[in-house]
Amino acid sequence: MPDKLIELAERNWHKPSGLIFCIGAAILFEIVLLNSLDTKIFVSIIIYVISLFIVSAAWFYSNRYPKTANGKVGFVVSIECSSEEENLRIKEDFTDTLRRLLKNGTLGGTFHFIEIPQHLAAKIKDNDDATNLKVKTKAHFVIYGRVRLRPIDGKDCHVLELEGLVAHKQLPQEISNQLANEFRELFPRRVRIPTENDLLSFNFTSEWTECVAKYIIGIASALSIDLVYAEQLFRDVEKKLKGTTTDFPIFEKLRQRLPIRFAEINKFRALVSLRVWRKQHSQEALSQFSENINKIPEGVNDDYDTLLLRGIEAFLLHRDMKTALSCVNKCKKYDDPIWHFNLAFLNAYNEELVKAIRQYRICANYEIQPITLTEVEDFLVWILQEEPNKYQFHYCLGFFNWKIKGDILQARDDFNKFLKCCNKGEFEKEKELTIKWIEKIENQIAEQEY
After folding, report:
1. pTM of the entire predicted model
2. Are 382 and 280 within 8 A, CB to CB?
3. CA distance 41 to 43
4. What is the mean pLDDT of residues 19-38?
């Protein structure tokens, strides 16, 4: 009889009824014991209250969710099992293996691995529950689901039904959806593992989960602008895949996508360096910009952003007009004003002002972001300071301020500077146009004053 009571208490300990049962059992035991000792009623009441507090505190402590340590990346695994035997098998062959793989990597010290007990794992049924679990544990990554033993094709199989959740800073909905789709595509959501080969299969599933988890956390870290940690995670996955000879489709996809992720990191770093250069015009910032551009892996350097950056690098570092023009011309399939501005600049540098103005006219039809307008104008002003003999950029600045920025007073000043700088016999057609444009601007000014 006592054995059955103990078993009942253990089985129901984490339920409210278990708390009530244990409190009742403790007090009953103390009543019998204290009565035999003929303890005074006042002392007995104090002992009952202390017992009530201790049992309640132990119950609440055992039902609390563990929390991620400060400065660590919380990695939570919550898997509900159909039996205690199944729970032990999952713990030994899957959860412990996953814990070891995460801890053994070069970034093992950054992870805080948390395994949710069965009585709490049983409460995690859907994405909302998992989100609450992520908040309560302060985790960055949650694997949740269940495992069942089922006969399939005449063989007993462990059926793992897993889902994952990754924490990231608030992102635009489109980017958030892309991250979720990539997660669903790569993550081992439903796996059948025959019982006769379960150890090997569980180990493989753990390796699969580890790679995908680090890859997805790496993306989330990059989107949260933690580029150093993101790159370290991607390097961990890359190293893991190099040591794996299997042609498993998910591993192949990861091998194909890692160069893209590295390219994104280096593009972002290049953009940061370029912004620094725009403000400081320092050689150090320019060198960092070039270094990051040249880290972009071969085969993933023909996307729009990379082409723009490579074109800028070719001009800024080497005045390599051929390469710069080649990069910009490859962007013509994109409906975006930036490459038109870049092409206008390069045409103007080559003294092909008709072509340059044609590009500026196209840009005038776009809705341009204020930051872009500032960057374009600053770049034109910089080249005039850097190479005063390229005075044709006063002409470009005049048209830019007139037709795109809408600053007619500045446009008039720019056009007058162009006329003042022009040498005899140079840009004759442009000088004629400039005179006519200044006249139109003067009329606009007069109308506004009137």
Report:
1. 0.73
2. no
3. 6
4. 64
